[in-house]
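User: Reviewer 2 asked us to show a designed sequence for the structure in our supplementary figure. I'm pasting the structure tokens here. Could you produce the per-position amino acids so we can include them in the response letter?
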């Protein structure tokens, strides 16, 4: 049962753990957190990170707004050397809410000012920012898009949550192919705005995560898990981008499962697939 808690010391936490008969060990020495770490071709000055949690405080056209800038200024002054920027849509219809950020040619100057704000705050407090790594998460919200769901496959578990009818339209291959170019454009815009990396969001049942489970979808964006990985900003369509390099990560769910039972006739009716993806998480878009 959850309850409100206030720990005033590490000892308070240890006592609470002991009272619950839990085996949770705590480390007093946290010096390792302040050691530099290599992240692919990048180098972070310590091992503390700001994770990509949305503030839902952008403008109606997707620009960072006053509260967004205030948050990022605090991120920069906070001491973490990795700022993992929040989910940012790559096309207008992909936004999860009317205040979600959107990276386009028109909004790119505001994103440049956003990361510069964090860097300036970091320099003012710590004297340098050459070991500060700032990225931006790129997303398509898929079935959670605002104002209407956009799906690549039907899900008996998820469709009822958004009142999606069984005959609802599925995104076609032409749209998904165009979406590849949209991710590439957004990655180039992020690079030009001063971000060190982009993160391709493929988790939490958003569109790219949904495609990983699209074994029942025909064509180039369905079938096997490996085939489903085709839609990626590191795909061969990256040749559409100008000559440049930006680090690229992919965030995936640890597992994707459905509440069904396998049968002797269909032993693979439960699918949980994430193995092998970690090897692809540090790649480069050129």
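Assistant: Here is a per-position design you can include in the supplement:
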């Amino acid at each position: 049962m959850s309850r409100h808690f206030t720990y005033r010391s590490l000892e308070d936490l240890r006592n609470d753990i002991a009272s619950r008969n839990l085996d949770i060990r705590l480390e007093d020495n946290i010096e390792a957190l302040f050691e530099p770490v290599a992240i692919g071709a990048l180098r972070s000055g310590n091992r503390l990170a700001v994770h990509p949690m949305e503030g839902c405080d952008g403008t109606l056209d997707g620009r960072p707004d006053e509260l967004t800038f205030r948050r990022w200024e605090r991120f920069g002054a906070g001491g973490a050397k990795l700022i993992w920027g929040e989910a940012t849509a790559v096309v207008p219809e992909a936004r999860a809410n009317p205040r979600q950020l959107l990276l386009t040619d028109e909004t790119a100057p505001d994103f440049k000012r956003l990361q510069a704000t964090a860097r300036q705050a970091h320099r003012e407090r710590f004297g340098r920012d050459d070991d500060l790594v700032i990225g931006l998460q790129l997303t398509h919200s898929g079935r959670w898009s605002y104002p209407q769901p956009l799906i690549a496959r039907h899900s008996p578990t998820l469709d009822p949550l958004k009142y999606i009818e069984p005959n609802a339209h599925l995104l076609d291959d032409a749209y998904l192919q165009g979406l590849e170019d949209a991710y590439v454009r957004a990655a180039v815009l992020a690079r030009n705005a001063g971000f060190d990396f982009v993160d391709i969001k493929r988790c939490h049942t958003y569109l790219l995560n949904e495609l990983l489970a699209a074994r029942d979808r025909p064509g180039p964006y369905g079938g096997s898990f490996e085939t489903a990985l085709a839609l990626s900003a590191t795909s061969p369509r990256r040749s559409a981008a100008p000559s440049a390099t930006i680090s690229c990560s992919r965030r995936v769910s640890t597992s994707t499962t459905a509440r069904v039972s396998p049968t002797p006739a269909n032993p693979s009716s439960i699918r949980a697939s994430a193995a092998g993806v970690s090897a692809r998480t540090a790649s480069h878009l050129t």
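For the response letter, you might also mention the following. Residues 173-192 form the longest helix (20 residues). The beta strands are 37-39, 42-44, 49-50, 82-89, 101-102, 133-139, 197-202, 246-252, 283-285.
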